[in-house]
Amino acid sequence: MLKPESVAKSDSMLKVENIDVYYGSIHAVKNVSFEVAQGEIVTLIGANGAGKSTILKTISGLLRAKSGKMSFMGRDISSIEAYALTQLGLSHVPEGRRIFQQLTVEENLEMGGYMRSKEENMETIEDIYKKFPRIRERKRQIAGTLSGGEQQMLAIGRSIMSHPKLVMMDEPSMGLAPVLVQQIFDIIQELNRAGTTILLVEQNALMALSIAHRGYVLETGKIVLSSNAKDLLNNDDVKKAYLGG
């Protein structure tokens, strides 16, 4: 078992405190606490079933914690509905992309900006096309016919249509060829440099820690280690468990 190490952030944008989440009688997330400061990339790493996706779904209001508290920009969001969190500036790119398969690429983007004016959306869509030239080329194409990498680009693009302060990304590299994985992680870094805070859930621990500022390691629903990303990359236990070392 890895030994826990606390890393505190005083300027937290997102703060999760002692949450417990259940699926029926299954205790999936156990007394989890962590923080994400403004401007950071923070990653949650761990094996399948460790509770990573469950944590993101709980933060975004798709699941409810049985106990604990969550706050975003100083506001308690423990009981806020998912749609209202988008208005507060929190966006979620779910595992499996979850794009609108029957809509075109551009219609998917427009759905991401449903709260904003047409003029604002047009400007944002143009910015997204600059970031994702392949999406521009396919803007009239039915989204369900895109490749896996293109669908992931679209999912990320749709998530930033609402101009979020924090984007949560769940397994953005899943099922992608290595060259596309690198491209997706380059885009994540670009978004962060432009001012977007990122909470990243990723099984590709090496890639995640290579771009993150800090990381948390989960095992069977518990955080067992937390530190800056460089230290986690050099941690022998992390190497053995997640980096093939």
Label this structure with key terms.
6-stranded mixed β-sheet; 4-stranded antiparallel β-sheet; 10 helices; 2 domains; alpha/beta; Rossmann fold; 245 residues; 10 strands
Secondary structure layout:
Blueprint: E1 12-23, E2 26-37, E3 41-46, H1 52-59, E4 67-72, E5 75-76, H2 82-88, E6 90-93, H3 105-112, H4 118-131, H5 133-137, H6 148-159, E7 166-170, H7 178-193, E8 197-201, H8 205-211, E9 214-219, E10 222-228, H9 229-233, H10 236-242
Parallel strand pairs: 3-8, 3-9, 6-7, 7-8
Antiparallel strand pairs: 1-2, 1-4, 4-5, 9-10
Helix pairs in contact: 3-6
| SSE class | alpha/beta
Beta-strand residue percentage: 25-35%
- SSE series: EEEHEEHEHHHHEHEHEEHH
Strand segment tally: 10
CATH topology (level 3) name of the largest domain: Rossmann fold
CATH superfamily of the largest domain: P-loop containing nucleotide triphosphate hydrolases
Compute the separation of the termini in Å: 16 Å
Radius of gyration based on Cα positions: 18 Å
Largest sheet: 6 strands, mixed
Mean pLDDT: 87
CATH class of the largest domain: Alpha Beta
Rough shape? globular
What share of the residues lie within helices? 25-40%
Number of helices: 10
Q: Compute the number of structural domains.
A: 2
Low-confidence stretches: 1-10
- Do you know the CATH architecture of the largest domain? 3-Layer(aba) Sandwich
